[in-house]
Specification:
- A hairpin with a 4-residue loop joins strand 5 and strand 6.
- The chain is built from eight helices and 13 strands.
- The longest helix has 16 residues.
- The strands form three sheets. A six-stranded antiparallel sheet has the order 7-8-1-2-9-10, with helices on one face. A four-stranded antiparallel sheet has the order 3-4-5-6, with helices on one face.
- The model has no long low-confidence stretch (mean pLDDT 96).
- Helix 1 crosses helix 2 and helix 6 packs across helix 8.
- By secondary structure, it is α+β, with helices and mostly antiparallel strands.
- It has two domains: 206 residues, Aminohydrolase, N-terminal nucleophile (Ntn) domain (Glutamine Phosphoribosylpyrophosphate, subunit 1, domain 1, 4-Layer Sandwich); 73 residues, Muramoyl-pentapeptide Carboxypeptidase, domain 1 (Orthogonal Bundle).
């Protein structure tokens, strides 16, 4: 059986009702096996000669009100190969446990605190998980940002001592999925890359760009030079024919509706007010003004 030589962090934000995992490994598609989470239930990272049943079975136990510690004990008790496994669990109340079997390859180990469990095997040393903990506790922001910051810190501290290949982040939040139908809020994977953790960060930036909303103070009035630049882009792409004049009128509004809709930014465009979120303006100018 292939071993998932991996480092991961499992954590929750009880106030925001989010549970998630960030993981990286010198193994392809690590995100397909290691991370498991369910909003208001808990999260599990299962790795090192991974027993993927730990994920769904662990969540099912916690859904029956088992604590993280009770869940870990029950999972290990029925697994004859337990000493080859590594697992981190955080439950609905923020209790956290980690386990590293005696047959996991050095360096291997883990640590826990209130609301988080960090673990890894075949690492460059204990410094990897120590740095992950340090940065996780120091970082401000939502849970995805803190998970990613911790993962990046572990990666740059040496990570998997064999090298890099894949990374993933999975975060569950009540009605957090697209349209509010599921709890799958954040689910991004880099399955095979030279610098997967960095690429994962780029995907998270895109998620915020497409799914985020700016406060009113960060919305740009479409007029003058900014609007001229957008009109030039739209003219080049065939969305706009009239004069490039920086004037926001009905024709420009209709052209922007088509252009921004095709770029999937319709939710960040306020057509009646003639406003567009600043991050979208920056992205479009960078993408098309080359």
């Amino acid at each position: 059986m292939p071993r998932f030589s991996t480092f991961s962090i499992v954590a929750c934000d009880l106030k925001a009702k989010t549970w998630g995992i960030a993981v990286a490994s010198k193994f392809p598609a690590v995100g397909a096996a290691v991370p498991w989470a369910k909003a208001e239930i808990g999260a599990v990272a299962t790795q090192s000669y991974v027993n993927t049943s730990y994920g769904p079975n662990g969540l099912a136990m916690m859904e029956k009100n088992f604590s993280a510690e009770e869940t870990l004990e029950k999972l290990l008790a029925s697994d004859e190969e337990r000493e080859t496994r590594q697992i981190g669990i955080v439950d609905a109340r923020g209790n956290a446990v980690t386990f590293t079997g005696e047959k996991c390859h050095d360096w291997a180990g883990g640590l826990t605190g209130r609301g988080y469990a960090i673990q890894g095997n075949i690492l460059a040393g204990a410094k990897v998980i120590q740095k992950m903990e340090e940065i996780f506790l120091e970082t401000e922001g939502d849970l995805p940002a803190r998970l990613y910051s911790a993962l990046y810190a572990g990666d740059r501290a040496g990570g998997d001592k064999r090298g890099r290949q894949a990374a993933a982040i999975y975060v569950a939040k009540p009605q957090g999925g697209y349209g509010g139908f599921l709890d799958r809020w954040i689910d991004y994977r880099v399955d095979n890359a030279l610098d997967p953790v960095a690429e994962l960060g780029e995907l998270l930036e895109l998620h915020e760009l497409y799914m985020g909303k700016s406060p009113e103070s960060e919305r740009i009035k479409l007029e003058g030079t900014v609007l001229k630049d957008l009109q030039k882009i739209m003219a080049k792409l065939g969305y706009y024919q009239p004069k490039v004049d920086g004037i926001y009128n009905k024709t420009t509004q209709e052209s922007l509706n088509s252009f921004l809709g095709n770029e999937n930014f319709e939710n960040r465009f306020y057509a009646e007010e003639g406003l567009l979120d600043q991050p979208v303006v920056n992205y479009l100018l960078k993408k098309f003004r080359k």
